[in-house]
Amino acid sequence: MLELVIFSTLNGVVYGLLLFMLSSGLTLIFSMMGVLNFAHASMFMLGAYFSYQVGKLVGFWPALVLAPLLVGLIGAGVERYGLRHVHRHGHVPELLFTFGLAYLIEEIVVMGWGRNPIENRVPATLDFPLFTLFTTSYPAYKAFMMAVSIGMFVALYLVLKRTRIGLIIQAALTHPSTVAMLGHNVPQVFMRVFAAGTALAALAGVIGGFALLTTPNMAAALGPIVFVVVVIGGLGSLGGALIASLAIGIMQTFAVALDVSLLDLLRHAGVAIGRESALFELASIKIAQAAPMIPYVLLVLMLIVRPKGLLGTRET
Amino acid sequence: MLRVRDLHAFYGKSHILQGVSFDVRPGEIVSLLGRNGVGRSTTIKAIMGDVPPRGSIIFRSEEIVGLRPHEIARRGLGYVPENRDIFPGLTVRENLILGMKSTKQTGRWSFEDMFEMFPLLRERADTMGGVLSGGEQQMLTICRTLMGDPDLIMIDEPTEGLAPKMVDLVAGLLEQIARRGISILLVEQKLTIALRIGTRLYVMGHGRIVFEGTPDDLKANAAVRKEWLEV
Predict the structure, then answer these.
(1) What span, in angstroms and rounded, lies between the C-alpha atoms of A267 and B75?
(2) Which end of chain A is more exposed for a tag (fewer CB within 10 A), N or C?
(3) Is residue A282 part of a domain?
(4) Does some domain include residue A229?
(5) B192 near B161, Cβ under 8 Å?
(6) A161, A181, A185: which to substitute to probe chain B, counting the most B Cβ within 10 Å?
């Protein structure tokens, strides 16, 4: 039991930090531009594919840096030559633009690498058990994933709180036109934030490629959960995104590990439901089976109870 | 210094500015007066490029119509917004830093100058801007714009809602700024400080300039005051 708790917590934290790498970029972009970027998870997927492709040429370590940079450049292009023009026509066209972009990227990936998972392996230098506790060993690459995400969080925090560009970003989040009239090039700042946000998503893709299958579906699989994180944490709030990412990461990991059903719990409490009961089927669903539902249940409840999320400041 | 000719601006379909022309010369304090809704704020927003302008705006012999707000600011035009648009989640010092256009900037003004003019800002340097009083926020917005080292500063309603003592402080500050050779375009609804510190003034009505003169001219012209200013 202790073994399960320890390893589920560790895995949950790794998964949660991965979600945070995605949601931090998404929430920053939302704060600045007021638009939910549906193509954000596609950039995550591109990160995984690019690191595989670049890694074949120059090895994993350079690819860890190069893949996010390349995707960041694509992000800058998308903002500069796409979103900035669509932005003038309002939020709905913007939303549809990112929606279309997500499908476009998926199709491009299918064309380039096919529908089947690619062999995106953990590099040999990270493919060993870091430690063994009880009977389970903990792989080094997961510790590496954790280190990269924590490093990224610290770097992001320092840039936002301690640098001049961070101050400009913070101020432009709420008062873009005042910031522009003080002489700062706000559209350029927006483009850089968009590029940085996509590069972060791609970095998450590079290390996420270890733990998840690298397929053209990976964007569609993770994207909705990232939206859940951002809504629960509060749109525009980095702190909220961190809390929500870890909470959902840990919750989902535990739920998957719990091989019990309502039926079992009721039996412990001394309540028995017989096979003939109409509730039998429902009560015998294992928590692990229901795990994928958890984020969406939280999303729906959060929007009803507290639409601005845990730490959000906006009502929408 | 600033030469505005036949300036037009629109909000959607409403024609807000209908051919505004005026000048600000070096070192002058010029006031733009008028009742609410006549287009005073729109005039300076149009000059800053925040509202798309039509017509001609020459600043230091360069046409600035068509430039983007940050480009206009970088040419030496400073704007102090009406609603004391400070950044509430940043400290006083950070607000001032954001006024600077680059880190290497060596302008006429330093942190020390600001703190000397307003010792209160020094005491509150590490306080969040959002918790300052209305008067303090007004000082901060003016100082923030000064940190960008403008040659002409446009100030929208700086005394609105301030206590008389604070109004005097603002008036004194504006005179001090002008003494350093910076031109000021002051937008006011009330006559309070415009008559006291202004070199010249313009009165606006219905999107046009309806009167131009010195404070003494306006004092002598009760008809203009009655028709365009008094409520």
Answers:
(1) 77
(2) N
(3) no
(4) no
(5) no
(6) A181
Rounded to 5°, the CA angle A231-A237-A243 comes to 75
A91 lies in which domain range? 2-221+238-258
Of the candidates A168, A174, A183, which has its C-beta nearest B74's C-beta?
A: A183
What is the ipTM, given to two decimal places? 0.89
SS3 percent helix, strand, coil of chain B, rounded to 5, is 35, 30, 35
- Window A:123-182, CB contacts with B under 8 Å: 164, 167-168, 170-171, 174-175, 177-182
Helix (H) or strand (E) holding A132: strand A129-133
At A130-154, the pLDDT tens digits run 788 777 788 888 889 999 999 988 9
Contact of B76 with B105, CB cutoff 8 Å:
no
Total number of domains constituting chain A: 1
For residue A124, tell me if it sits in a domain. Answer: yes
Q: For residue A216, tell me if it sits in a domain.
A: yes
- pLDDT tens across A199-220, in order? 999 999 998 887 788 899 888 8
Task: Work out the pLDDT band at A316, boundaries 50, 70, 90.
Answer: very low
Using an 8 Å Cβ cutoff, are A311 and A243 in contact?
A: yes
Q: Which domains does chain B have, with CATH numbers?
A: 2-229 (3.40.50.300)
Contact B194, B215 (CB under 8 A): yes
Q: Give the type of residue at A129.
A: P
> What is d(CA A103, CA B81) in angstroms, rounded to the nearest whole number?
43
Which chain A residues are within 8 Å of B97, Cβ to Cβ?
164, 167
| CB burial of residue A214 (10 Å; 0-12, 13-18, 19+) | buried
Question: For residues B39 and B51, what is the distance between their CA atoms, to the nearest angstrom?
Answer: 12
Dihedral (C-alpha) A126, A130, A132, A135: value to the nearest 10 degrees? -20
User: What is the amino acid identity at position B96?
Assistant: L
Question: Do A170 and B89 lie within an 8 Å CB cutoff?
Answer: yes
Instruction: Using CA atoms of B208, B212, B216, B219 in order, give the dihedral in degrees to the nearest 10.
Output: -30
Give burial (CB, 10 Å; 0-12/13-18/19+) of A316. Answer: exposed
Q: Distance (Å, rounded) from C-alpha A262 to C-alpha A283? A: 5
Tell me which residue of B72, B12, B75, B13 sits closest to B48, measured CA to CA.
Answer: B72
